[in-house]
Predict the structure.
Amino acid sequence: MSNKSGRKHEPLIHITKRASMVWYKAWIVRAVAIVAALLVSAVVITLLTKDNPVEVYAAMFKGSFGTERKVWVMLKELVVLLCVSLAVTPAFKMRFWNIGAEGQVLMGALGAAACMFYIDDKIPNVALIAVMLVVSILLGMIWGMIPAFFKAIWNTNETLFTLMMNYVAMQLISFFIMIWVPNGSSVMGTINSATESGWLPSLFGQKYLFSILIVAVTTVALFIYLKYSKQGYEISVVGESENTARYVGINVKKVIIRTMAISGGICGLAGFLLVSGINHTVSPNLAGGVGFTAIMVSWLAKFNPIVMILTSFLIVFLQIGAGEIATTFRLNESVADIVTGIILFFIIGCEFFVQYKINFRSKHKEEGHA
Amino acid sequence: MQENAIELRNITKRFGNVVANNNISLSVKKGEILSLLGENGSGKTTLMNMISGIYFPDEGHIYIDGKEVVISSPKDSFKYGIGMIHQHFKLVDLFTATENIVLGLKEKGRFDIKIAKGNVKEISAKYGFALDPNKKIYEMSVSEKQTVEIIKVLYRGAEILILDEPTAVLTPQETKKLFKVLKRMREDGKAIIIITHKLHEVMAISDRVAVLRKGECIGVVNTAETNEAELTEMMVGKKIELNIQRSEVVNPVDRLVVENVNYYDKEGIKILDDISFTARSGEILGIAGIAGSGQRELLESIAGLISVSSGSIKYNDPVTNETEDLCSKNPVQIRDLGVRLSFVPEDRLGMGLVANMDIVDNMMLRSYNQGKTAFVERKEPRDLAERIIKQLEVVTPSATTPVRQLSGGNVQKVLVGREIASSPTVLMAAYPVRGLDINSSYLIYNLLTKQKDSGVAVVFVGEDLDVLLELCDRIMVIAGGRVSGIVDARTATKEEVGFLMTKTDGGLTNE
Amino acid sequence: MLDKIIAFICAAIVQGIPLLYGATGEIITEKSGNLNLGIPGIMYVGGISGIIGGYLYEKSTADPSAVLCILIPLLACIIGSALMALIYSFLTITLHANQNVTGLALTTFGIGIGNFFGGSLLSFFGESGSISLLTTGKYYTTPFGFSIGDIEISFGFMAYLAVFIALATSFVLNRTRVGLHLRAVGENPATADAAGINVTLYKYLATCIGGAIAGMGGLYFVMDYTSGAWTNNGFGDRGWLAVAIVIFALWKPKSAIWSSFIFGGLYIVCVYIPGLSSATKELIKMLPYVVTIFVLVFTSARKKREHQPPASLGLPYFREER
């Protein structure tokens, strides 16, 4: 915006990119953003419920930590989101916008469900689970590699491509449900409810513990892969500058396809967990938009798998908390999405203040030119 | 017809502590072509940017048609009838010529592209341009794009035209056509400023020449009363002693033999034209030339980043005494042949280093793939980083600081340090001291000399002739993608090299 | 047989109208270089804003007038959707936030708003049941028909409006100075900036106007298609189909018209083909997406410049980074 009078060769507000911001300052900015977001959400919720916002947040906390069962449910939600967030991370680091995680998860789920349905108790349960795992990961990989292949050879827009692949995967699941469910119903009941074939076993009496452990291992593995492996290093170089990759002779196409295979493979693993470890059934809405949320989780964590535990916890906590508010105050459960949205907007917006510096024109300079 | 269209009085512009233009006064009359001559970094573009409203002068006055004006934005510049044709075209590829020409105009009345097309045709006919107003930019040759840019400023009613190195991208035939058009514009009473390095073009087209050197205006002379030798001397100035240590060449062996290399870029323009030379061990071969004469492409083709259209690049291995062909091999293949080739590219943070990675990770760029495990080895790179920080006195908080946060000189030390650390047999460096302060520059010169003394074949692309003459053993001069001469740096004069740099056989001088 | 085909075509058009609004809105947005993946959320908000406006008006008066019954929801829809697009614009244009992340967050937020108010609006006023605006719905569904031979064809006014907006958009983009400038902003913002075009203003306006038009797709769905009734998640994935049409139509509003009808047809064709198993029906529903993928791959392979997305699509523009 320029001032009307005088010379406008120097704008009033001048925005420049920062060289860097000290890490703790950056985190202070982010913390302030989250607090501000919670305040705005509190105002919104208070307007809707006409209740004390403190009580509202207490209810939120109770939603995640109220009982032991609630903690396990929260952990279950957490690991699914975390697993998919991990999956999209290598691709993002490479600046490949994989917003098709949803579809890759669904393909993994479909693979696991198909194995459960067709093999059932024909082979020992351990073998079946192993087969399911392999099939899930492979299907996720294929679903991820298709857009990567076209990106590598023709530079096809991967954002739109992966987005479309989601819906193809959803319809494929609907198709198989129609085949598998005899009475023409579109709902697949629990698979193998009698034999429990292909179900991940409970550990120490906890149904979800096995899945939680698998994701924990994946988190550490991915952290090591990205930080310490040669391939992880190549991903960083390609993501930062293709010109540099060329300079040192990295085969960019190969890296794109390989990385998307990994990304899709981990999504497939998440699909496997959803079917084998958690739901024991499959539906087109099984992933419930987790692919999109995962993008935000990964992005908020700045692609660091360990930080992702925190960011995915933040999102899950908000969603469950908002759900709890909805039941406590007899509101619609969609309030969770609204609160999530508000908080995301604030966090997305605050990055600007981390990356850019706002300089106001000094009076002195203005006089100097007049 | 003798009044000044534009006059600059005592213009000064500083960037921080650097004085880019110091007290410059110039004028151009209507119906006159003024050449602005000067080396890279002499302040020509800064001066022109102040006329076109991109920068604002710290001191001085600008007069248009005798009246003082204030130009504080490109819009003001349009208003006073000034049109600048930049070296990098600002055109929308997908649009037609006409659409680009009328882009941004806020004329009254209904928008009708047909009327605009008619106007474009009229201007084309008036000055003798050959332009199809319906042709899309992406289908155009460079010279056609330039035509669009020129018509764009004429369409806006420009009376003063500034052309920034317009012939750098043109073939001799296209240059001839451009000059014909410029002469027509001169007859039409336009004032034209043309920035160029090519002396024969200065002689062929301009009425007067203004020479800039290191931000100062050295003089303005009538073209008819001068010659190329005088202009060269004005441009490069007297030789300055730098006291760079230069050792004698010991047992030179042919290390890199480049023969008849040709290279065409994506748009089919010939960038390298039949280049042949030999780089010897224990010797610094300087490459001089106006920026953009093909230096970058030459080094990149040797390093395996681009593949040449024809010619051969041979490497003589000092250990096995075998000769390897480097043509159409990528950097990894070249390394696998056992060729120890190091390359300090011009674009440090965009190519040589990864800006967001720390010094340690940047050390691994070339070596990360060594070792048999799937994991990178960070111990050696860390030691190397510490060693380089200590030996080259890199100012950095730590070895784990992203290189983006280092100053230009320190970035360059990190890059050069890494490239030297792999004990190369050939070391190529493109503008390694650009943007560096005196101390860092001398440190780099000493490093290069040390490499030479240890038997490395060093190729040094530079822009400062004084440095080239004192640092190198031989200097190859490139002009317009061709080798215009290879001289002995110990005996050659600055004028000689400067003359070779501007010697493109455009055939214009013969007219 | 013929009447069946005609019935199918009409149904396809009805299905295609919300998609056409969404696609036209997204084309305008993308022409400015903004890839707004918040469109599905915006369409939900467009629908629910109209519902809220209509509900409040019907509640406030015993004798609702036809004009206000149409204007109030329409205005509410435009304001609601434009506000959503404004959030997106502020974050991506002014704060340089990533477009994909912002868009997806907007979709989460928008669908949340739609379903929240859809599910709770009545309870705020101490009523129960589900929302059904009969009067408003009646005015919106009033058919305007014509006949070809003895076959009657009729649609509500918003169907015609959708086609008109698409044609008008095409005209503005290709024949006016504003359109030329907008396309320049999306293709090469630095050049547009140098030519004196206010890049920020164009991006804001295109995104907000595009958002408002897309939101009208949600309004058509709730007011005409479902005659004033709201069901949570009733709009389904149509928002993403609209994004797909933009690709399929190669960023041309005129092509979006027939593309929308084709996609609308593909969405329901399985109901009209006799003897299909329910499994095959699901496969047919996959077609719009598969076809879009083929178009995407095919155009990127052919590299015809006119068929590519706007060159700066998805990238932020920051003058200092040139």
Observations:
- Chain C has a mean pLDDT of 88.
- Residues 2-31 of chain C form the longest helix (30 residues).
- Residues 2-321 of chain C form a domain with the ABC transporter involved in vitamin B12 uptake, BtuC fold (CATH 1.10.3470).
